[in-house]
Each structure stands twice: as C-alpha cells, then as structure tokens.
Amino acid sequence: MRKLLFGLPLMAFIALGIVFYQQLGKDTEYMPSALIGKQVPDFQLIDLSSNTVTTNEALPDTPYLMNFWATWCPSCSAEHAYLGELAEQGVNIVGIDYKDETEAAKKWLAERGNPYSMVLTDEMGHFGVDMGITGAPETFVISGDGVVLYRHQGVVNAEVWKTLKGYMQR
Amino acid sequence: MRYLHWLVLMIGVVVSLGTTANEIREFESPTLEQRYYALIEELRCPKCQNQNLEDSNAGIAVDLRGQVYEMIIAGQTDQQIIDYMVARYGEFVLYRPAHKQSTLLLWYGPFALLFIGAGIFVLIMMRNRRTAKELDG
C-alpha cells in the first residue's frame, strides 16, 4: 500500500507526459470553422468583372474552392501561382476579394493571371465575417449543394491541396 | 521654468501611451456604452491566442468591434450578439464558455480537485494526530 502511494507521483507524471506529448507539434493557431456542415451564408456581392450584384445562386453546383484573398496580403501573393496550377488542372476556384480596392484587384489579376472562375468583392469584409474568417488567405472546400466541408487558414500549397482534394471528392 | 514646456510634452506622451488607440464611439446612453465595453471585453479575438476584442489591433478584431457596435445601436440584445459571434467563430470567442456537458470538467474540475485535496489533507491530519496520541500513550 505504501509503495503504491510512492508510485503515484510517477504515474501522474507519466499520464501528464502522454497528454502533453500528444499536444506537441499541433498548430496552436488552428481553429476549426464553426460553419463546417452548414450552408454558405446568403450574400449580395459585386462581381469584379461584370460589376453586377451577385447572390448565392451564381455559385457553382459542383464542389469548388472558395479562396479569400487580397492585394494587401503577402501570403496571397505566395499562393497565387499554385492556385493558377490548380485552375489549370480544372479545379473550380471562386475568389473573394477581401477588404480590397477594386482597381488594385483588377490590376493584380491582369498581371499575375486569374485562377478564379469568378471573383466577388467583399469590400467591407461583412461576408468574410459571415464565413468566420480571421484574415487572408483562407480557403474553404464547398460541396455542390453549398455546404461548407473544410476550411484552411493560410497558404495553399501541394501539401495542403492533398487534404483539400480529399474533401472535394466526397 | 525653461523646461516647463518639455515637461508638459513628456506628460502628454506618457498619458497617451496608457490609453488604447481604439475607435471613438458615440452612444445614445451610458447603458449602451457599458454594454459595448462589457461585450468587447468578454469576446475573444478569433485571430489571437489570448486577447479580447478590446485589446487586439488585429484587422478582424477592429471589424468585430464595429459589428458589436452596429448591433448594439440597432437594439440587439447581448445574447443575440454573442449568438451571432458563436455562429461564425464558434465557442472559441467566448471567454466564459457555456455550461454544458463538454465544458463540465472546465467549470467544475478545479472544485473537484480542491475537494479531493482537502479530503487528503484532513485524512493526513487525523492520522498524524492518532500517531501523536499513540506516542504519548
């Protein structure tokens, strides 16, 4: 009985060790989206190219990526080329120009190429808040019937695409 | 006397350092103002690990402060505003998580530990007293 009592701190130490070890390497910034499994919120946004008011009805009816980007965002610049590659492979990407200036956005797309099937401008960032984004870039996988399947915060690259692809095929 | 204007300038700098650089808001009544500050103090900035909306200068925190303000002016209740934030950013934004099964340990765990600790303390005290008596006798 006494020996067991002395062993207690060691056992507690091991148990805590296991708990802490499992937390190691986890991204502390990671936050699951509150919108997973829910419909894309209703919106009325201006289409960048046609300059007309666009609603949810214009969204694709097959799985697609929704990418929040902006010309002021350095990480968006980093992922732009890779988004171009994905678009070439036939991935449908809807761009949301988040809290940006229309002219700057048009210039950016003209200079670097346009990977988006359509670009909607969220000038005030209200749609971004409705989607629960905390900054740019953020990329959502959305199903053909408009349900949010997955959210990735930060740059999309080949490694991230592996995960996104898995959700697109569901 | 020569240095007086420098002194005034220094005081000005020091005083302005202490205040937050948040937006200036106008309210119809002090109650609304109080509710605004209570809410932005209690809601956590979704971009930051350990800052509330009031403390954070992250772009999203500025936007959400604006949103809270708009909703208060529009006559929404505190609960409506909190529900709005939770619907978009999840329970992460609550510095006071809801009482429910998944947060049971969080809310009552410390009291359980305190109770166990107190129990062990009493047990040890009683045993020590008994040993002391046996030694006396």
Automatic annotation (TrEMBL), chain A:
Segments forming a coiled coil: none
InterPro entries named among the record's database cross-references: Periplasmic_diS_OxRdtase_DsbE, Redoxin, Thioredoxin-like_sf, Thioredoxin_CS, Thioredoxin_domain, Thioredoxin_ResA/DsbE_sf
PROSITE patterns reported in the protein's UniProt record: THIOREDOXIN_1 (PS00194), THIOREDOXIN_2 (PS51352)
Keyword terms: Cytochrome c-type biogenesis, Disulfide bond, Redox-active center
Keyword Disulfide bond: yes
Keyword Repeat among record annotations: no
GO biological process, one term: cytochrome complex assembly
GO cellular component, one term: outer membrane-bounded periplasmic space
Domain of life: Bacteria
Family, as annotated: Belongs to the thioredoxin family. DsbE subfamily.
Protein name: DsbE family thiol:disulfide interchange protein
Native organism: Marinomonas piezotolerans
